């Protein structure tokens, strides 16, 4: 049945769409559109359903990405990807965990739609240039050129990545304890000198409009945020989002802040705070991600 085939490959299809779009909501829209197209096809005439579905989802995601790019250029403040809750063992596939990390998703946002599609399909999911050419409607030689250009762009901007672990979650807990008690030095001890804090309120709630850089400024920024947004009714829960250790700030049971942490060698190098309510109302669902059977390209 068509529905069975789509359900079987849904984690892979969602992962591709999310990495191309940076939005779980947009990825779900793409999957819905793709399912409607798939349901109109006689599955008995499709020799390789997964390849067919990947091609449909890729084309739909490309169309969607081109449509939303102008909207994102007008975004109020700094744009962050819509966070997705991942299982604690998401870091076991390091390539997949890095590909959905906040830092990598921000790098992917700087690619044009074709570059992003080619990089995601080739370098993350391991599809050949020929397979990608068929999916995006371009000649294989053109796809090779796009892949080279995109890879060079990403390599120049990608940050060192370490997936979530118990040790990193402990760093986050120490950071939150220091923040709760107002210990500036305690925060400074856990922050890398060049740490960057990025907030996304979407112009709908209070958040920093620009990245905050440097341990001293970030420590004071964090304490200021907690003073103005936390109450006795605020509860903090540990979690894993986008393959990264994270903390959920709930006030009266409602998710108010979601903060993901980038940690290297025991020091926090990046803090990504999402407060835009449009990006939080789906943040409770744990997403199953999948790269399929292809082996990834190794740099």
TrEMBL record:
GO terms for biological process: DNA-templated transcription initiation. GO terms for molecular function: DNA binding; sigma factor activity. The keyword Metal-binding does not apply. It comes from Streptomyces aurantiacus JA 4570. Keywords: Sigma factor, Transcription, Transcription regulation. This is Putative Glycoprotein gp2. It holds the Pfam family Sigma70_r2. InterPro entries: ECF_Sigma-70_Domain (IPR052704), NTF2-like_dom_sf (IPR032710), RNA_pol_sigma-70_dom (IPR014284), RNA_pol_sigma-70_ECF (IPR014303), RNA_pol_sigma70_r2 (IPR007627), RNA_pol_sigma70_r4_t2 (IPR013249), RNA_pol_sigma_r2 (IPR013325), RNA_pol_sigma_r3/r4-like (IPR013324).
């Amino acid at each position: 049945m068509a529905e069975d085939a789509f359900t079987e490959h849904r984690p892979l299809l969602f992962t591709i769409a999310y990495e191309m779009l940076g939005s779980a909501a947009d990825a779900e829209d793409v999957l819905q559109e793709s399912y409607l197209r798939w349901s109109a096809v006689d599955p008995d005439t499709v020799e390789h359903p997964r390849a067919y579905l990947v091609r449909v989802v890729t084309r739909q995601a490309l169309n969607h990405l081109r449509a939303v790019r102008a909207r994102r250029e007008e975004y109020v403040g700094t744009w962050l990807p819509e966070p997705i809750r991942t299982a604690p063992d998401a870091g076991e596939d390091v390539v997949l965990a890095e590909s959905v990390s906040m830092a990598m998703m921000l790098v992917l946002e700087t690619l044009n739609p074709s570059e992003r599609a080619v990089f995601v399909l080739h370098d993350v999911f391991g599809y050949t240039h020929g397979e990608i050419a068929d999916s995006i409607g371009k000649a294989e030689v053109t796809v090779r050129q796009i892949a080279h250009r995109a890879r060079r762009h990403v390599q120049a901007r990608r940050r060192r990545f370490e997936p979530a672990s118990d040790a990193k979650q402990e760093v986050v807990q120490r950071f939150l304890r220091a923040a709760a008690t107002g210990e500036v030095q305690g925060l400074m001890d856990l922050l890398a000198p060049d740490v960057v804090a990025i907030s996304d309120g979407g112009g709908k709630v209070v958040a920093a409009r620009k990245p905050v850089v440097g341990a001293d400024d970030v420590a004071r920024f964090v304490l200021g945020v907690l003073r103005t947004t936390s109450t006795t009714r605020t509860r903090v829960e540990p979690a894993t989002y986008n393959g990264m250790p994270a903390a959920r700030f709930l006030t009266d049971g409602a998710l108010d802040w979601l903060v993901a942490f980038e940690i290297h060698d025991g020091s926090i190098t990046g803090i990504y705070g999402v407060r835009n309510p449009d990006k939080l109302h789906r943040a409770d669902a744990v997403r199953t991600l999948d790269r399929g059977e292809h082996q990834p390209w190794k740099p």
